[in-house]
Write the structure tokens for this entry.
Amino acid sequence: MTDAAAATLFRLEPSIRHYAWGSHESLAIIRGVPFPTLEPEAELWIGAHDDDPALVPNVGRLNQLIANDPKRFLGSLTMEKFGPRLPFLLKVLAIERPLSLQVHPNLEQAQAGFADENRKGVEKSSSERTFVDDNHKPELVAAISDFYAFMGFREVADLTALVELFVASGALRLRDRILNLLKNMAETRGFREVLEGLLGQPDDAIFVEETIHAAEKIAMSDSTYAASAKWLIEIGRLYPARPDVVASLMFNLVHLKPGEARYIAPGQVHAYLSGLVIEIMASSDNVVRGGLTPKRVDVPSFLSIIDWVPENNFRSEGIESGQITTWTPPVDDFVLTRIECAGILQWVEVKAPLVLFAIAQGATVFRGAESLDLKQGDSIFVAPGSPISISGSATLWCGSCRVGQ
């Protein structure tokens, strides 16, 4: 048995976030605990973010262990590049109902917004707070089940065709509130004018009901926009009379099949709608909401952070090598890897710290004299150093970061 002071493999107990959009079953089934759960379970946090760090049983919280001995837990390469904190956060999300329309800041925006709210004396725990830390929040999402989301603006021609169909189906007020703004202005300014007229505005039951009635006709048709119409109807049930429901027409409806992934850069508007997914991101909890939520929205900050370019390509292709698939985003803070053990011994380099999560079946991780068994729902932290080997039949999701050149 390895001495605790020399250990490099650490079992984790992730934190669970309870939000109304979560599931009473999905995360519980993965973890092998009784369900339905009393509260909806939305997010499993596997990392060291200060707001919800994972627990190393009988040792302490992972963020504190890193703070006490960053060289041991992060390694010199990670510290040199990111400072004395784990730069990524791995999550499992169980989405039973749509999330808010949201955007994440880049590093400069996060630092400026965080410092400004500190100067104003806004408590970090306050519901009036927008920037809860000083880090950017690019992220990558990989589908475990069929996954639906709004991601990025539609192309102008696509949005125009969609709105014209709604107008022809009876949503006459869309002509002035969306269509004319798009036709009479440059692309990005037109998008901004439309959103300013829909987000944070007073309830308008007639406008929203008229749009939903048109959506009901389109949803029953063979139109390519039928799926978008169905989601508008669903969102309208959650937020009746709110004009931000209509804003959902502006965004691409994305369907990811299991194993497909998308990268979401800072500034790119998105709203997750349904599905079970793995999400990895820079270690940040900065979420700037613009609508479609009972929570506080900050429309001015939301609009100021948006990347207004339509259809920046979100697709992220995984690179396969045997039973290992790796998604490498255009940032160094995180890398996502899926490992299909399939009874074959896998060797994994560990130049930077990593976390492993077993989403199905079981495996054993070895390094020298150390070993840890992972059953379905278990996770571990691996300090940087020599390679690890993995045997078993598990599907593992691995979060790490890029260091060195």
Q: What stands out?
A: The radius of gyration is 22 Å. The chain has a mean pLDDT of 94.
